[in-house]
């Protein structure tokens, strides 16, 4: 009997339809990668360095920025090398490790939105008990179960994917995404598809459901008490914008693998990539602009940096050569 599980090394051929134009993709993805790293780093630094921002919502925003600072590191550099130098190879072990970290950090993109929605719910619907409920020892009961859920579900479907036998080594993607690897398997992959569906319904779908319920309660509370309505709506609009973009990209990426249609492979790979990368690029800019406290501290920090750069550039070179 022929050993059909011999493929332990894969070739990533995402966007191969572009042919000679494929290296052109390096520039836009590189710019998004650099901006996401700089914007998220700045956001984390501002929250950590400013004592006035050491409050639950700002800490949650900084936590999301940390996730979105780490997530692109696990797949974008490899993708850029693929575009520029045609480095397409990856081992099965490397693929599974990359897949685990991508999906693990990707899961926390919606999980942090859940925690932010809960923060807004407690702040607007139960303001008298807000600081008591959002104390770390109490809020941790909302944190630990979701962290365990994410780690367990991601580990299960990645482990199942590693046990498959693969008939081909050409993966039509730019990094190791779960369904892109499962499609290469020989025989039945129903268990893998079921595990993937369970992860989808128990992480992003469940998270979006909790967020939706929280905001229904928030808006009903705002309608009953109009005094704090304007401030509450302004606070929540940022999260709704981020949620809308995340949900749209997630649904397109999910349906592109489950529904067979005339959608070109390059379009499917594009949405599957942007589902992970675009929030890392988009969210810190949105939070930095729309969250007034963070925006003010960012502007102050940038003003200080601009002042020091101006002083440094105007200082004669002879001042640095004193002996």
TrEMBL record:
Ranges annotated as spanning the membrane: 25-48, 60-85, 97-118, 139-161, 194-216, 237-259, 265-289
Domain of life (superkingdom): Eukaryota
Membrane topology annotation: Multi-pass membrane protein
Domain G-protein coupled receptors family 1 profile: 39-287
Protein's UniProt keywords contain Acetylation: no
Principal place of residence: membrane
Subcellular location: Cell membrane
Keywords: Cell membrane, G-protein coupled receptor, Membrane, Olfaction, Receptor, Sensory transduction, Transducer, Transmembrane, Transmembrane helix
GO cellular component entries: plasma membrane
Pfam families with a match to the protein in the record: 7tm_4
Gene Ontology MF, one: olfactory receptor activity
The keyword DNA-binding belongs to this UniProt entry's keyword annotation: no
InterPro entries: GPCR_Rhodpsn, GPCR_Rhodpsn_7TM, Olfact_rcpt, OR51/52/56-like
Name assigned to this protein: G-protein coupled receptors family 1 profile domain-containing protein
Organism: Nothobranchius furzeri
Lineage summary: Eukaryota, Metazoa, Chordata, Craniata, Vertebrata
């Amino acid at each position: 009997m022929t050993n059909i599980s011999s493929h332990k090394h894969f070739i990533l051929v995402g966007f191969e339809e572009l042919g000679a134009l494929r290296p052109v993709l390096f520039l836009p993805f590189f710019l998004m990668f650099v901006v996401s790293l700089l914007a998220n780093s700045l956001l984390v630094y501002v929250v950590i360095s400013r004592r006035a921002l050491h409050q639950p919502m700002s800490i949650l925003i900084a936590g999301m920025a940390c996730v979105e600072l780490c997530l692109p590191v696990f797949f974008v550099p490899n993708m850029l090398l693929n575009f520029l130098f045609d480095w397409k190879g990856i081992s099965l072990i490397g693929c599974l490790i990359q897949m685990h970290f991508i999906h693990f950090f990707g899961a926390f993109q919606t999980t942090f939105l859940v925690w932010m929605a809960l923060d807004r719910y407690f702040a607007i619907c139960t303001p008298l008990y807000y600081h008591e409920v959002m104390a770390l020892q109490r809020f941790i009961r909302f944190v630990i179960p979701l962290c365990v859920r994410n780690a367990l579900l991601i580990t299960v479907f990645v482990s199942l994917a590693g046990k498959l036998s693969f008939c081909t080594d050409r993966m039509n993607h730019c990094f190791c995404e779960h369904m892109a690897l499962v499609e290469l398997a020989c025989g039945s992959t129903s268990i893998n598809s079921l595990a993937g569906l369970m992860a989808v319904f128990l992480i992003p779908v469940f998270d979006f459901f909790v967020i939706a319920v929280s905001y229904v309660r928030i808006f009903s509370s705002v309608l009953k008490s109009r005094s704090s309505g304007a401030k509450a709506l302004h606070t929540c609009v940022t999260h709704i914008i981020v949620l809308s973009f995340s949900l749209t990209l997630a649904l397109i990426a999910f349906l592109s693998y489950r529904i067979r249609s005339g959608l070109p492979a390059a379009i499917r790979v594009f949405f599957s990539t942007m589902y992970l990368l675009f929030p890392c690029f988009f969210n810190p800019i949105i939070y930095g602009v729309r969250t007034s406290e963070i925006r003010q501290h960012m502007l102050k920090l940038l003003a200080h940096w601009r002042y020091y750069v101006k002083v440094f550039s105007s200082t004669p070179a002879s001042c640095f050569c004193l002996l």
